[in-house]
């Protein structure tokens, strides 16, 4: 396996993760919904004023819970951006939905709001906006369309922890929202996620689905005398070991975010002069969105250009990676797609490259990365490289 002097990602540890895991084990309660789960729930509900949250074993699980709560049935249509992780669509496909893929916008990989209404049909049940890189989708027009057509909005906020839309926390705007705490995210628990329930219609059923289709939580709160099987569901809740790890991260959220934003800004300022020459495009932040510094990316001119950049950095021990492939062109779903061309989703699939960004990355390491990029795009090297790759 190749060893990189600068990896793409390195999980951050605050120092209390193992201590809290030990505390959880010593408590004698290491299955789900114990003291650390409750502390995490309280943190999110207090800091972001989410009405109700439930930790899950992954963001995929949170999305699957959302699909059940939305009562997605075979034949229903769900609008999903094509440029996203497979879980965004898969959670609804498992319920029998047909996916109607939305193109990305010219400005950033988020779905193109201007084309959204044309995708709505009498069979549409839900819209799933993805806040790519923690950058907010334009939620006001999405919610207006949802209200007009009586649709549910499920925010895929996997990358959007501590992100805001016009001052509102991402995940607090739609009827439901899903977050990820995978090791590549800003706040991590190895694997983990969270469902946010903003619509009180779903409060009780969400908890039942979370607890394997039982009213177990109501029983332990003393609200019912016995508990039993009352609905569909699964084992969506994480163990206390996962929650203990996550809580240690949450205690350091402000420090983590401050550091990541500083690194993101340093990248942007260092690469802006070269971007202004047209060598590549930098991320665009709409005025309605905050920047949670989840990832830093470049949009290369074409796929060949991106390959040169990735290979150049890799040769110097630096791991940069591309991201999603367009789901409408995927092996699994392309035959089910309605045939529309989604040019901007394909552009991001072919041209976007993510640069290393993690808490322990140093400014000196960013300087090294930027210097290599500047050297690659200098006139002499650029012309020679284009000629070489053009012969492949």
UniProtKB/TrEMBL annotation:
InterPro entries: DegT/StrS_aminotransferase, PyrdxlP-dep_Trfase, PyrdxlP-dep_Trfase_major, WecE-like. Keywords: Aminotransferase, Pyridoxal phosphate, Transferase. The keyword Membrane does not apply. The active site is at 185 (proton acceptor). One of its GO terms (biological process) is polysaccharide biosynthetic process. Its EC number is 2.6.1.59. The modification N6-(pyridoxal phosphate)lysine is found at residue 185. Belongs to the DegT/DnrJ/EryC1 family. It comes from Spirosoma validum. The gene is rffA. Gene3D superfamilies: Type I PLP-dependent aspartate aminotransferase-like (Major domain) (3.40.640.10). GO terms for molecular function: dTDP-4-amino-4,6-dideoxygalactose transaminase activity; pyridoxal phosphate binding. CDD domains: AHBA_syn. It is an enzyme of class 2 (transferase). This is dTDP-4-amino-4,6-dideoxygalactose transaminase.
